[in-house]
Design brief:
Layout: H1 2-20, H2 24-40, H3 42-49, H4 55-65, H5 71-82, H6 89-103, E1 106-113, H7 119-133, E2 136-143, E3 151-155, E4 158-161, H8 164-177
Parallel strand pairs: 1-2
Antiparallel strand pairs: 1-3, 3-4
Amino acid sequence: MSGNRAALRYAKALLIAAQEQQVAQEVFDDMALISESVQASTDLEKLLVSAVVKGSVKLKVLKLGFPEVNSLTVKLFELLDTNNRMALMLEVAKAYVVAFDLSQGKITAHVTTAVPMTPALEAQVLTKVKALTNKIVNLEQVVDPNIVGGFVLRIGDQQYDASITNQLNQLERVLLTS
């Protein structure tokens, strides 16, 4: 939990510095690339979180692996190394992406359905979420047959569960308490 809070603090500080230097979009591109790369490479992720590998080695790997990044991103690498927090790199990158999107008036809504949504239904959900949030919405869909039917919509820390599984669980609780 404290790792997440620390990552969020680093990400917010990075966003403020990037906005001051008017390179927030460039740093966003860097953080998105780093996030995708670390998630795609389990070896890189293991290296970053390893307590055995020295921070200086991790710093070299990041600098060699991402030679075209903004100087502010390189400063983040160095700061994480100095503070022995290199294991937070992936979390910082993800938190920066979210913080940047929020600063641009964008949010990501996650919709979980039992079967893939049709384009018409996806457009309806997107329109409804835009109306509710007054923000630019990126819709991410996850298919999970375990919810049986209906959907689960998550926007930030709010969740609306209209799945059949949830309705059955609520019915079960009512029947057990009666």
